[in-house]
Design a protein that fits this description.
The chain is mainly beta and 288 residues long. 6% of the residues lie in helices and 46% in strands. The protein has three helices and 23 strands. Strands 10, 11, 12, 13, 14, 15, 16, 18, 19, 20, 21 and 22 form a twelve-stranded antiparallel sheet that branches. It is globular. It starts with 19 loop residues before the first helix and ends with a strand.
């Protein structure tokens, strides 16, 4: 999806700055990675903490975001009848053992590692055989856009995609697996907290046991790709099919619009962090 998808959002809320207690946790590098529990998921880069959690008794969903270098400190709460905004709690974060992470008493396990690297010119999509790799690699990194009282933060890893966007009356918080191949993308959204005044949608959905899902990702069903439409395949699986490409741009048939992915260069301004590309070949079925 276009990285600029939410930049047109206008004023709603930007909870700003962290106190001294939070400042001491500003460096997130020692927690770097994607972490998951039964009803929770988090991504940490060197600059960003994004954490989603659902109370299994009340059903309340929470989305926490910290970007200390940009003064962003936000907690969005989706309760049964209300959506509220504030600052993140004073989470105690620690690693009790290898492969484990505790956030405020919630225990998660690592499902994907992350490495940060220096900016570089990403490879071109010279032929269709490059599409899967480029769809994965071109979406890597941390994007932060904060303008007035709107905020959009995206983190793309080699297997996952995270979004935290608030502005213009809209709230969109999500975590999703992203599996790529030369025919297009399989998008599997396992956490979705959405308030959309344009469509009337108000969702607070945690589709799966996040750890179980992310450690047993489904195969890509090649037969589901259809360039004429966005294909919903049940259980939250959505297929975006390749429409066209140039060496520097890939277009997919998304849901209601064309999703355009452009090749990042080392001077791409919206990327504040570059994540290392790690080859990941998703399992496929029903190929030709």
């Amino acid at each position: 999806m276009k990285r600029a998808f939410f930049t047109a959002l206008t004023v709603l809320l930007l909870a700003v700055t962290t106190g001294a207690a939070r400042a001491q946790q500003a460096g997130f590098g020692k927690y770097r990675g994607v972490w998951a529990g039964m009803k929770s998921e988090a991504v940490f880069t060197d600059s960003v903490m994004m954490y989603f959690h659902r109370d299994t008794v009340s059903g309340t969903g929470y989305g926490a975001l910290r970007v200390p270098s940009r003064g962003i400190d936000m907690l969005t709460t989706f309760a049964k009848d209300t959506i509220t905004f504030g600052k993140t709690p004073g989470y105690i974060i620690n690693r009790p053992s290898d492969g484990m992470l505790c956030i405020g008493g919630d225990t998660l396990r690592q499902v994907e590692g992350i490495d940060i690297m220096q900016p570089y010119d990403m490879p071109q999509a010279a032929t269709k055989l490059d599409i899967g790799r480029c769809l994965q690699e071109w979406q890597l990194g941390t994007v932060v856009n904060a303008d007035g009282n709107s905020v959009q933060v995206m983190v793309g890893t080699n297997r996952n995609s995270f979004m935290y966007a608030v502005g213009g009356g809209m709230v969109y918080l999500r975590a999703a697996a992203m599996l790529q191949c030369n025919e297009g993308s399989l998008f599997i959204q396992n956490i979705r907290m959405m308030k959309n005044p344009n469509t009337g949608e108000r969702s607070n959905i945690f589709f799966y046991d996040s750890h179980e899902f992310l450690t047993n990702l489904p195969p890509i069903d090649i037969s589901k790709f259809d360039p004429t439409r966005c294909v919903f395949a049940g259980d939250g699986l959505i297929y975006w099919s390749l429409l066209s490409h140039t060496p520097d741009e890939i277009k997919l048939n998304g849901c209601g619009e064309t999703y355009t992915f452009s090749r990042p260069r080392k001077d791409t301004p919206e990327l504040i962090e570059w994540l290392k590309y790690e080859p990941y070949k998703a399992k496929t079925v029903n190929g030709i």
